[in-house]
Specification:
about 500 residues, alpha+beta, Jelly Rolls, Rossmann fold, 3 domains, 7-stranded antiparallel β-sheet, 12 helices
């Protein structure tokens, strides 16, 4: 083989390897959960959205390593199939981190779903359940056979037959779970805080159809492979027709080498970025938080009359949890639910709850808004639901003291609500809760420990979409927890 052919051979071989690497990187960058058309991320479709929901649905990092990572973007993810199918069997591989669990959902309908919890966490026992769309467990049956080992891959298979639904883990004997759905069904996967990897999903249908999901973007890979291979073919053609033009051939060699180095660089970048989250932009967040405060204030003054003496008005001061983040539909946040509960419990009064929850704000700014804008609403009861967004206990305490003074000056019956978090993230008291207790005691303000109340009911269903934002069911529990204190303070 002469020198020219040897150079061409080496160049083409290197470029073909580079084409494969570049196609893989393109497949990763263009791969996303909802972009596949097969899956839907539940949090991305909440009317009262939560942080990271859209990023999880659309980010390539969710499927890094060609696996579905349910721990991405603050965990507590739920992924469901888009279309209902007449399933005959469903099987998949999964790896929960230590203390993690996977809830395998099936027979998902508009009102309820069936499910199987495969758990390595003794505080979240394995079992079968039926849950409402809100997240509340309507039934739960512990099944220790579905306890799995954390940080180890396991295989689960669920069969849907005439005799009912049965499931088996790692080839062990199947355990009956109940009647099989009579209609085509959707299915999905749900995690808690701790990461769970899902891979190699195989669905078989009664009509012989189905699919095998590996979470690799074959469509993007083949698209890039075809385009880049065409470039290599064009370069090889030009090499042949320019055999007597050394300068042009030198340019072709340089171009081919550049393609190789670019592909290797892209592969290295993929390795680096696959496990990274996008860089946080504090300037953009500050601008958004400021605009959010203006939007909420405008809504409050457009929806609520400045003077309504015939009403018992409850003003709820807080951040995104108070605003209703995590509720599936507008009107299902705890402030709105609390108003309905108050109307049912004491219908002789004209109750009105004003939602003064501003996402991303801290206590000092919220107290400023209370003083400058919301005292004009003349609330009868003030609920202060805070602690998540503040970091400095001294500044937080000063803001609470100022809030207590304002309430006393305007004779507003006040309640301090200890803002709840998921017990997976905060099993004990939150760092700023003692500050709230101290200020409340100094000012004669009753305290409702919402955090502890929800922790005591953690086994009743899916309460959280992340560490601070409840599900629709979680919001309802917060409202139920606050109800007795509001009824009592309204009479003082």
């Amino acid at each position: 083989m002469d020198r020219s052919r040897w150079i061409a051979f080496v160049l083409v071989a290197a470029q073909l390897a580079a084409v494969g690497a570049a196609s893989y990187v393109y497949a990763w960058y263009s791969n996303s959960l909802e972009g596949s058309g097969r899956w839907s991320a539940t949090k991305a479709h909440l009317e009262q959205g939560v942080m990271g929901a859209m990023a999880f649905a659309r980010s390539s990092q969710t499927l890094s390593g060609e696996r579905l990572d349910l721990g991405r973007w603050f965990g507590f993810q739920e992924v469901c199939s888009r279309e209902p199918v007449a399933a005959r069997s469903l099987e998949l591989d999964f790896q929960p981190s230590p203390g993690g669990c996977l809830s395998l959902l099936y027979a998902i309908g508009p009102e309820a779903a069936e499910g199987l919890r495969l758990s390595s966490d003794p505080l979240q026992p394995a079992g079968r359940f039926r849950c409402a769309a809100s997240g509340e467990f309507l039934e739960f049956q512990p099944l220790p056979a579905f306890t799995v080992q954390g940080d180890a891959w396991a295989h689960v298979r669920v069969d849907f037959g005439a005799a009912g639904v049965a499931a088996a883990v790692d080839g062990k004997p199947s355990i009956p779970l109940g009647p099989a759905p009579s209609a085509p069904q959707r299915f999905g996967f749900r995690s808690g805080l701790r990461p769970v990897l899902v891979d190699d999903v195989r669905l078989r249908c009664t009509d012989g159809g189905g699919f095998h999901e590996t979470f690799f973007n074959w469509r993007g890979f083949l698209f890039a492979l075809g385009g880049l291979s065409g470039l290599v073919g064009l370069q090889l053609f030009l090499w042949r027709v320019t055999r007597h033009d050394r300068r042009l051939r030198a340019l072709l060699v340089a171009g081919g080498a550049s393609l190789v180095f670019l592909a290797l660089g892209a592969l290295a970048l993929h390795r680096y970025k696959a496990a990274k989250y996008p860089r946080f932009d504090p300037t953009a967040e500050a601008a958004w938080v400021s605009a959010e405060a203006e939007r909420i204030d405008a809504r409050i003054h457009s929806e609520h009359e400045l003077r309504a003496p015939e009403r018992t008005r409850v003003l709820v001061l807080g951040t995104s949890q108070t605003w209703g983040a995590g509720a599936a539909h507008a009107g299902e946040g705890f402030v709105e639910v609390l108003e309905r509960l108050l109307r049912a419990a004491a219908p002789e009064r004209d109750w009105e709850c004003v939602n003064a929850g501003v996402s991303g704000q801290r206590a000092a700014r919220l107290v400023e808004l209370l003083r400058e804008r919301w005292l004009a609403l003349e609330p009868d009861v003030l609920i202060v639901n805070l602690s998540n967004n503040d970091k400095d206990p001294v500044v937080f305490e000063q803001a609470l003291q100022a809030c207590a003074r304002l309430a006393a000056e305007h004779e507003i019956a006040t309640i301090f609500a200890l803002e709840a978090n998921s017990t997976e993230c905060a099993p004990g008291e939150l760092p700023l809760h003692p500050v709230m207790r101290r200020v409340a005691e100094a000012n004669g303000i009753p305290v409702v420990d919402v955090h502890r109340a929800l922790a005591a009911q953690a086994g009743r269903g899916f309460l959280w979409w992340d560490n601070v934002h409840p599900t629709t069911f979680g919001h309802r529990l917060i409202a139920e927890t606050l109800l007795p204190a509001v009824l009592e303070r309204a009479d003082t």
